[in-house]
Design brief:
With 167 residues, the protein is α+β, with helices and mostly antiparallel strands. The chain has helices at residues 43-55, 137-140, 153-159, and strands at residues 3-13, 16-21, 34-36, 64-72, 93-103, 111-115, 125-133. Strands 1, 2, 3, 4, 5, 6 and 7 form a seven-stranded mixed sheet that branches. The termini are far apart.
């Protein structure tokens, strides 16, 4: 089984989480920015590089490691309606480090950006970015996320304070 080291960024503004989907692959669910670590690169530097490559954003904020995952992508079953294309995700064992980054203000509400250097090779990947409230019904259902990106959300929620509802 091939081993892949991955780093992902869970960017929040208040209780909103930055997510993206791939309009050209509608059968994929929501994802968070990140990807494969280059040889000799640290998880942290890989998270920063992958975030910039996928989002087109440059942010000056702390990247805090908050969870890790060890996922065998040879056996992982599709979640809900979402299935990977034959070449994605990379088949093998994925060792993930997940980083939390907090921003006071959203850089944009929605946008599209192309990942020009997919780790599996191939054409650039069009990513459509938006925000989702971590406490919304959609975010609470892991089936809305692709490739176990929803699994760390409970740990992330414990780091955030949900504003009290006003009557």
């Amino acid at each position: 089984m091939r081993l892949f080291h991955k780093a992902y960024v869970y960017l929040t503004c208040g209780t909103d989480l930055l997510v993206f989907d791939e309009p050209d692959d509608p059968y994929l669910g929501l994802q968070v920015p990140g990807g494969t670590i280059d040889p000799g690169e640290s998880f942290l530097h890989g998270a920063m590089r992958e975030f910039a490559e996928e989002t087109g954003l440059s942010i000056d904020a702390a990247f805090e490691h908050f969870s890790s995952q060890d996922l065998p992508f040879e056996t992982i079953a599709p979640v809900g309606q979402f299935r990977a294309p034959p070449d994605r995700p990379l088949k093998g064992r994925h060792i993930r480090r997940n980083y939390h980054v907090r921003l006071a203000d959203k850089p944009r509400d929605t946008w599209e950006h192309y990942e020009m250097f997919p780790s599996g090779g191939g054409d650039p990947i069009r990513c459509r970015f938006s925000w989702i409230d971590l406490f919304s019904t959609k975010a609470l259902d892991e089936e809305n996320f692709f490739a176990a990106f929803g699994a760390p959300l409970d740990a992330l929620r414990t780091r955030l304070h949900r504003p009290a509802k006003t009557p």
